[in-house]
Structures are given as structure tokens and as C-alpha cells.
Amino acid sequence: MTDHRDETIGAAPDEAIRNAIVWVHGDCLRPGNPALAAAPGAPAIFVFDDALLDDYGTTLKRLVFLYECLLELPVTIRRGDVAEQVLAFAHGHGAERILTTPSPAPRFLEIGRRLDAEIPLTVVPEIPFLAYDGHLDLRRFSRYWKVAQRYAYGQAGLPLDEDEAPSRARVDGRGGPVG
Amino acid sequence: MARDFADRDALIAYVAAQFPDAAERDANVAPVRGGRAAAERRLDAIRPREYAWTRNELSGDVTRLSAYLRHGVVSLGEVRTAAIDRVNRRGDVRKLIQELAWRDYFQRLYAAGGDETIWEDQEDWKTGFGPEDYADTLPEDIRLGATGLPCMDAFIAELRETGYLHNHARMWLAAYVVHWRRIDWRPGAAWFLAHLLDGDPASNNLSWQWVASTFSPKPYVFNRENLERYTAGAHCRTCPLLGHCDFEGTYDEIKGELFRPMPWDDASAHRGATNGKRAARR
Ligand SMILES: Cc1cc2nc3c(=O)[nH]c(=O)nc-3n(C[C@H](O)[C@H](O)[C@H](O)COP(=O)(O)OP(=O)(O)OC[C@H]3O[C@@H](n4cnc5c(N)ncnc54)[C@H](O)[C@@H]3O)c2cc1C
User: Fold this and answer.
1) A105 with B110: CB under 8 angstroms?
2) Which is nearest to A163 in space by CA: B94, B86, B47, B53?
3) Ligand 1 centroid – CA A40 distance (Å)
4) Touching check for B241 and chain A: CB below 8 Å?
5) By alpha-carbon position, which residue is closest to atom 40 of ligand 1?
6) For residues A40 and A42, what is the distance between their CA atoms, to the nearest angstrom?
7) B110:A104 CB<8 A
8) What's the Cα-to-Cα distance from A17 to each of A29, A154, B122, B189, rounded to whole Å?
9) Model pTM?
10) Quick check: A114 pLDDT over 80?
11) Between B11 and A2, residue with greater pLDDT
């Protein structure tokens, strides 16, 4: 599976995009989905994961919500075993590549591996919330925030508050406690 | 599957027919609409300054963007941009951005640790009890919203009918389930995941663990005063249990009754209390 760490779709050859299908999953149901954007007009599919819905005891309201999201996207909607359905769809379109977007779910990785074993899968990156690749201590939110707060405002050129300058200096300096 | 529907009722009927198990578990449909257009209406309505002052109140200016964020109908970055566009100084968006960051934080933990992180105790319980002291199934009265406590039953009804609960209501309900009823956080978390439109294994389970104390330095509890204050008395004012409900008392009294002393506790909080009395009552 191609991960954004070693390749972005921008670097992929044109034919690959022409012969691609897009697998849309439940973590990225917006029209601006980067995988859809990377291959405009490519056939796209969403699959309701029957086993997962059962595992989670999903109730009707969630499915209606998801369905309403899907109706605004250019996707074929199927259900069943996700990898099987996506592969069948890809073969049906003669696809040589599958594009999708990232997810932290272990199930996503497992499905991704099954797809990639048959047809190369490219995970098109999303713009991350924090434009920061370095180490983040995740043991407690406060430790994460100590570093994350420097990036959490994005590119905004908002002025700092009066009370903020010293606290920033403290954090940027020797990593004191978050104020 | 079908894509053309005359109206929302036709869509609902179709989805219910296609997924009869889901409809049988609970046939409620949320008033909230899925899709980008609905999400953008919410995005246009966010008020970061008011959010900072009122977010803890049940009627406060929260964004209600969670289901859209959970499913990537909008991204955290888009919400941040929309928020920043409405203010002139950082201080006015800090609170909202920090809450958005909680989501980013939980997603990172999930990416790093997978199912183990979200379904297993991250740390020991700090309640004086061990994992074996907590029931591993959720009783019917909780599932159905028939606990007899008007506030809890109202939250449960809202969860089932709308698939949404305010953050404070989630905290109170989770604390009631885990600490007052002494039920393991896992069945509670699974129950929320079945109903919440924003149900997210990382945000949900780690929040349950935070309430339980397996992902925080101490268990989260509340008292009636706290609930009354942030609900503007909506449940307490007309409650037949007013003055003698399970949530009456100071924090120390409540902790004394719910938990066994931990080494770092102030011993006086437990003086004269029968440990676990409240939980044992039900
Ligand atoms: C027991 C319990 C279970 C929870 N389960 C979930 C869940 O399954 N899915 C979920 O998205 N949130 C969950 N939360 C976190 C929080 O309650 C909801 O994100 C929030 O109430 C959603 O309402 P809102 O969109 O109006 O939030 P706002 O206050 O307007 O916040 C904006 C966004 O920031 C994020 N956010 C805010 N607070 C938190 C938080 N504490 N943790 C993580 N993200 C946050 C959400 O994406 C939210 O939509 C849970 C909290 C508790 C205590």
C-alpha cells in the first residue's frame, strides 16, 4: 500500500490516475475528498461494511445520516465485504489503481492490505490539522498541547493576546507547563 | 444500492428495509441531516466567542459539528478557518481550537495504538476497585432510559432519539453508568457507539476511560448542584427526587460513598461513609 509518507498522488503518473477508481470510506464523506479530487471523473464506490455495522450494533439513525451524506457524492453505493466489493468494482472498470484517503482505524489498514495485494492502493493524504511532522508526546493531552498549540492556529495571522506572549515564550523556551 | 428518492421519508423507508437489524435495534431517525449542505449551515453558524463562555451549558453555543467532523463531511482545518474568520484575536478562538485539538489528539492515539488503546484499560482504575468489580453488561433500565432518575432518563431518551448529547450530558451519563452503577466503561462505550451519529471509537472510548479513571489521574464525578447549574434546572426543578436523589451531596461526600479510599485521598472525605453504599443500593 502506498502511504503518503513515501508518495503523494501529485507524483503519480497520469495513466495511473486515468485508470483508477476511488474508494470512499466513512472517514471522508465530503465532495472535496482529496482522492476524488486527485482523479476527477473516476468511478467511485462506497461500501457499507455489514460486519462492522453488526459489531457496533449500529442503529438506523446513523445509517440514514450516512446515506444522506453519500447522496451528495458521486459514488456507487454497495454493501457487504468491503474489500471484495471494492475489488469487484475495480475489476469491472479495468482499474489499475485504487485511490483512497487515510484513516486511523485498524480495519481500514486490514482492508487496505487486501486491496493492495491485488491492485495497487494509493492513500491520498489529507491536509493535517497540525502542519507539524515532529514528535508529539501523547501520554496526556496537556503534553500534546504543549507542542500542538504552536501549530493549532494554522496559518492565521491573528495577533497574540497580551497574556499570551510570556506563556508562548515559556513553552518555546524550555517546555514549561502549559498556562 | 438506490440513489433516487422522492423525499426523506422514502429514503428512511428504504434504509430501514435494507438494514432491518439496525432498525430493529432502534428505529429512531435523527432530525439532523447528513451531507455537506447541512454541515455548511452549521459551519456558518459557529460563534467562537460565545462558545468559549457558554460551551459547558446544555443550551450553550456549541457547534454541533461532531457528526460531520467524525465522517469527514467537514475537516478540523475547515472549522478552524471558519472560526478564525470570525474573530480578531487568538483569545477568542482558543477554546474552540483546543476542543478541535482534542479530536486530533484522540485520532493520533488511535493511529498509534489501534484497538488495544481504545478497548483496553490504559491505566489502573483509581476508584479503589479493580476491573473485576465492574459489571460487564449494561442493564435494561439504562438501555431503555427507565432508571427512575428524570435527568438520566431524559439524556438517554435524547441519545436514542437524536444520536447526539451535549458533552456535559455525556460526562454525567457516563459517570452515572460507571461510578453510581459500577458498570465497566466498555459496555457503556459500546452503547454510545451504537447510538451517536458522531460515534467515534477513539473520542468515545477514551472519553469513557477518562470518566472511569483508566485514562486520567482521578475518576470523574459530579453532584446535583453541578448538573442543576449547567442545565439551568431543567430536570431538577420538577424532579420528585429533589433533595434525596443519588447525586445529592458535596464532592467529598459523593466520592466517599462511591469509592474506596486511595492512598492519596484526604482520609476525612471517607470518615463515617459506608464505601460503595450508593452503588450497592441499585
Ligand atoms: C463519554 C463521552 C463520549 C464521547 N463520545 C464521542 C464520540 O463518539 N465522538 C465524538 O466526536 N466526540 C465524543 N465525545 C466528545 C464530545 O462530547 C463531543 O465531541 C461533543 O460533545 C460534540 O458536540 P459539538 O460538535 O457541539 O462539540 P463542540 O463543543 O462544538 O466542539 C467542536 C468539535 O470539537 C471536537 N470535540 C469537542 N470536544 C471534544 C472532546 N472532548 N473530545 C473529542 N473531540 C471533541 C468535536 O469534533 C466537536 O464536534 C465524547 C465525550 C464523552 C464525555
Assistant:
1) yes
2) B94
3) 33
4) no
5) B102
6) 6
7) yes
8) 20, 30, 42, 41
9) 0.91
10) yes
11) B11
Chain A nearest CA to B115, separation (Å):
7
C-alpha B171 – ligand 1 centre gap (Å): 11
pLDDT in tens, B72-109: 999 999 999 999 999 999 999 999 999 999 999 999 99
With CA atoms as reference, the chain B residue closest to A148 would be B101
Question: In this predicted model, what pLDDT tens digit does every residue of B144-178 receive, in sequence order?
Answer: 999 999 999 999 999 999 999 999 999 999 999 99
Q: Quick count: other Cβ atoms within 10 Å of Cβ A88? A: 14
Of the residues B164, B207, B208, B210, which should be mutated to test ligand 1's pocket, given the most ligand atoms within 8 Å of the CB? B207
- C-alpha B59/C-alpha B230 separation (Å) is 8
Confidence of residue B261 (pLDDT cuts 50, 70, 90): confident
B28 vs A78: CB contact, 8 Å cut-off?
Answer: no
What residues of chain B lie within 8 A of the CB of A141, using their CB? 101-102, 105
Inform me whether the pLDDT recorded for A170 exceeds 70: no
CATH architecture, domain defined by A2-123: 3-Layer(aba) Sandwich (3.40)
Asked whether this complex has an ipTM greater than 0.90, the answer is yes
Q: Hey, whose CA ends up nearest to atom 4 of ligand 1?
A: B204
Q: Give the separation between CA B248 and CA B250, rounded to whole angstroms.
A: 7
| Domains of chain B (ranges, CATH numbers) | 31-114 (1.25.40.80), 131-258 (1.10.579.10)
Q: Where in chain A is the domain with CATH 3.40.50.620?
A: 2-123
CB contact under 8 A, B90 and A145: no
Contacts of B43 (CB under 8 A, 6+ apart): B65, B74, B78, B79, B82
Whole-number average pLDDT of chain A: 85
Least Cα distance to A38 among A58, A57, A12, A70 occurs for A12
